Amino acid sequence: MSRTLPQRIDAYPTHWIAGLSVRSGRLMPFGATEVPGGVNFSVYSNNATAMTLVLFRRGERGPFAELPFPAEFRIGGVYAMTVFGIDPETTQYGYRADGPFRPEEGHRFDATRILVDPYAKVLNGQEIWGVPVDRDQEFPRRSGIAPDDFDWEGDRPLGLPEEDLVVYEAHVRGFTRHPSAAVGAPGTFAGLVEKIPYLKELGVTCVELMPVFEFDEMDNVRVDPTTGDRLHNYWGYSTVGFFAPKASFAATGRHGMQVDEFKNLVKELHKAGIEVMLDVVFNHTAEGNELGPTISFRGLDNRVYYMLTSDGYYYNFSGTGNTVNCNHPVVRGFVLDCLRYWASEFHVDGFRFDLASILGRAQDGRSLMEPPLVETLAGDPVLRDCKLIAEAWDAGGLYQVGSFPDYCRFGEWNGRYRDTVRRFLRGDLGVTGDLATRMVGSPDLYHRRGPVASVNFVTAHDGFTLHDLVSYDDKHNDGNGEGNRDGDNANHSWNCGAEGPTDDPEVLALRGRQQRNAFLLLLTSLGIPMIVAGDEAGRTQQGNNNAYCHDDEISWFDWDLVDRNSDLVRFVRNAIAFRKAHPALRRREHPTGHTGEGIFPDTSWHGAHAWTPEWSGYSRLLAAMHCTRDGDIVYVAANSHWEGCDLELPELPEHLAWHVFADTAAPSPGDSHEPGSEPRLADQSSIRIGPRSVLVLTAGTRSSISRGED
Predict the structure, then answer these.
(1) Are 15-144 and 592-701 in the same CATH fold?
(2) CA 606: distance to chain centroid?
(3) Partners of residue 107 on adjacent β-strands
(4) Which residues of 177-205 are buried (b: 16+ CB within 10 A; e: fewer)?
(5) Which of these ranges, 139-143, 371-375, 550-554, 621-625, has the smallest mean pLDDT?
(6) % of residues, the chain, pLDDT over 70
(7) Could you tell me which residues are beta bridge partners of residue 190?
(8) By C-alpha distance, which of 531, 628, 546 is closest to 587?
(9) Which of 322, 585, 617, 650 is the most buried (most CB within 10 A)?
């Protein structure tokens, strides 16, 4: 006896709303998802009393339909509707959320506003950089549906060991916007692809991109008081759409192809053996405080998404007006969904969390010992292989360098390393002992986690460039329109004898040496080194240490510097290659000072006399010898005194001899050598270290140099 199978009904409409066929949708995933015959829309709001889906066609100013969600289309706090017969490629959408407007209770609902979907994979309305959104439109930013047909050609995240990383922090637009970049699409993901050969030749293994989530570069109302030009929100630390790549960073953004263009950038970097890390901002949004615009979260459920005082005002631990309520269960889920999306759909290798200490604050602002969000990210199966890096402080005074709740997963930007190296290079007294600790991966901070928990840096996007660090005593932020009040005053910088540009050859020579000193200390320290794009070529911001607002030559990479300062570029390239060639500089464990099975202790300290370090508060000299059990030996000496001195060298076994890799006191090209071609030191018992200089030796056989490869 035959049976008739039940007819499938979930792909068929059950209702007609605003002239469109619809049915109750699937609650998960949130956002807009293509389904057979239509698109499923799902949005969360716990406190809204009604929700309306607003649909647009691309290029048309007004909506073609507004669809209120029937009561039966809501389950709990989730509204879900499948709409049939609409074209995902040309459909744009938003929401109207109705509910109470009682700011003192945290509610700011306004059904007259059309809101961006927090889960939108594409945002339209600002596809061309520098063109403001059309605020005359009722809904200037429209959510869109991303195509899902990219051919990855078998690509997957690279999974490089942390100890092998050399991180290169870059701004997508600034990297190729300068005319000297000579790329086909300046300031875009595609433009960056054209510079991959340069990155590969330099030797970096990870590119850390400053924010690429959709943001509004035009939300800065200040002007440059000197030129009168409008300033920008150039850096992008003010997110509008967390799931959407920035359209104006894509040459194809005006055609809605920014998703594919960013995926292609990741794929091409992976082909070159370079990982991709994203700088992500979950601590605040572009909506600001109560005076800011209503874009998305505020209109959907202000009390859920933001940390509010008892009278409905915004906590401001971010310094930008609001603070995301990261440890609310719904917000935790949002952050996790976002990172999973970028890791799975874009093959991103890791994330650096801006002002990450906020991720560990409770809803009332307290610092949590075991923050649920951080624990969730650390243990998530999708993010298991992603690098997770915390900027372990916030603008509310919570400083957690060395104490961030890491769950054995998070590394940290090591602000202590930055400050110590800067002070040593400047010649400050009393920092030599601290420098020794920083050089071996900061075991006082990361004893349990090992050196790879420490992301070492001397400069970052926030602050002086390396050129400016040795060229200015004071910040010069007059062009920011804030009366030079913005930016950090504690730069630990030194101008080497003249403030700013100079023709003095002695000052210029000292500045060049100091830059090389910084690179050499950074690249011979245990941990993960991070370089800022352009530092290797002497890029300047003209003394501006807070160039967040400048979309001009202050922020752009002038590629003519690569030729003009080719000696510095060559030095950095050699130093990166030397680090890669020597496992003694890439250890996962802190040294113990014990010999073990090696020729010498894993790390030993020296001064003017071998085996006799000088730890007094007046010392400006430090030497370290690193040795692996396989016989890789590297000797690093740093002198911040204005006078040179003779160094007695540790005696090597008879079959080995000291070879000189780098000496920053030597004129170029003798200041560094390609690994494997280091000249043998004539006097094996001592060497002269110049004033304010760093030198690096390696032990090779008397007949040939040992490359120290794994």
Answers:
(1) yes
(2) 36
(3) 102
(4) bbebbebebbbbbbbbbbbbeebeebbbb
(5) 139-143
(6) 97
(7) none
(8) 628
(9) 322
Does the pLDDT at position 119 exceed 60?
yes
d(C-alpha 354, C-alpha 436), whole Å? 28
Q: Is the model's pLDDT at 704 over the cut of 90?
A: no
Longest Cα–Cα distance of the chain, Å, equals 102
pLDDT at position 709 over 80: no
Structure tokens at 102: 């009682």
Confidence of residue 4 (pLDDT cuts 50, 70, 90): low
Find residue 408's DSSP bridge partners: none
pTM above 0.70, yes or no: yes
User: In sequence order, what are the residues at sequence separation of 6 or more whose Cβ sits closer than 8 angstroms to the Cβ of residue 664?
Assistant: 513, 516, 517, 520, 671, 690, 693, 694, 695
Mean pLDDT rounded to a whole number for the chain: 95
| Domain covering 15-144, topology | Immunoglobulin-like (2.60.40)
Q: What is the pLDDT of residue 285?
A: 98
Distance from C-alpha of 350 to C-alpha of 342, rounded to nearest angstrom: 9
Local confidence band at 703 (pLDDT 50, 70, 90 cut-offs): low
CATH 2.60.40.1180 corresponds to the domain 592-701: yes
pLDDT value at 305 more than 70: yes
CA distance 404 to 624: 29
Q: Give residue for tokens 């509010």.
A: 308
Virtual CA dihedral for 204, 416, 493, 545, nearest 10 degrees? Answer: 70
| Structure tokens that stand for 666 in this block | 């030597």
Which sequence positions are flagged as catalytic?
Answer: 354, 391
Which sequence spans correspond to the domains of the chain? 15-144, 592-701
CA angle 674, 678, 679 (to 5 degrees): 145
Q: Could you read off the pLDDT of 372-387 as tens digits, one per residue?
A: 999 999 999 999 999 9
Alpha-carbon span 233 to 548, nearest angstrom: 6
